[in-house]
Structures are given as C-alpha cells and as structure tokens.
C-alpha cells in the first residue's frame, strides 16, 4: 500500500454515531467517500469508525483503479488487433506485388 498516492480526511459526528472518511487522490484530486454508522446498541468509538470508514473509501478507490486498468487493457487489446489487421493487409499487398513482378518478369 502506497499511502503517498492519497490522503484521508475524517469527519465525525459522535452524537449521531457517524464517521466519514474522504480519500483524496493526490495526483488527480478525485475523491472517494466511506461512511461508518455506529449501531445504536453500541458505544461510539471514533477510532473504530475511522478505520471502517477509511476501509470503505479505500474499497471504492481500488475498485475504480481496477476498472480503469481493465479499460486500459481492453483499449490496448483493440489497438493491437488493429495493428495486426493493418500489418496483415500490408503483407498481403506485398505478396500480390511480388507475384505481379514475378509474372511480369516471365513475360519480358
């Protein structure tokens, strides 16, 4: 885990038993929010609330990163496929030109 890629800010409401963690990506400023609600039958513990809220924000962050990586991979696959089709067309044209030249030289 490289925590230098993001910062986390916490907001707590002890009276309502809610803790919010806002994870901000340092490079882009993109924000992810995690919320922890204390069960009314439990005692509010800010430290536990912060850990739960941060874990939920991190889950969103890593899911977004995985989706971005998946999209990049799919784009790369499309680019490779396009390059393959282009190379095959050029190779086929080269083969046609070679055949034409060989046939032409037989006639001359």
Summarize this, please?
By secondary structure, this protein is an alpha+beta fold.
CATH architecture descriptor:
2-Layer Sandwich
Overall pLDDT level: 93
- Helix-strand sequence: EEEH
Strand order of the largest sheet: 1-2-3
Cα-atom radius of gyration:
29 Å
How many structural domains?
Answer: 1
Q: Give me the oligomer status.
A: single chain
- Assign the CATH topology: Double Stranded RNA Binding Domain
Structural class by sheet pairing and helices: alpha+beta
Largest sheet: 3 strands, antiparallel
Question: How would you explain this protein's 3D organization?
Answer:
The protein is of the alpha+beta class. The protein has a single domain (3-107), classed as 2-Layer Sandwich (Double Stranded RNA Binding Domain). 57% of the residues lie in helices and 21% in strands. The chain has one helix at 46-107; strands at residues 6-13, 18-25, 31-37. It has a 3-stranded antiparallel sheet. The longest helix is centred in the C-terminal third of the chain and has 62 residues, at 46-107. The protein is rod-shaped.
List the helices and strands and how they pair.
Layout: E1 6-13, E2 18-25, E3 31-37, H1 46-107
Antiparallel strand pairs: 1-2, 2-3
């Amino acid at each position: 885990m490289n925590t230098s890629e993001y910062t986390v800010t916490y907001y707590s409401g002890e009276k309502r038993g809610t803790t919010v963690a806002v994870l901000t990506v340092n490079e882009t400023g993109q924000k992810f929010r995690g919320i922890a609600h204390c069960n009314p039958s439990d005692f509010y513990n800010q430290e536990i609330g912060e850990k739960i809220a941060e874990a939920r924000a991190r889950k969103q962050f890593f899911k977004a990163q995985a989706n971005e990586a998946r999209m990049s991979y799919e784009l790369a696959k499309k680019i490779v496929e396009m390059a393959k089709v282009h190379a095959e067309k050029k190779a086929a044209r080269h083969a046609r030109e070679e055949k034409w030249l060989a046939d032409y030289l037989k006639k001359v």
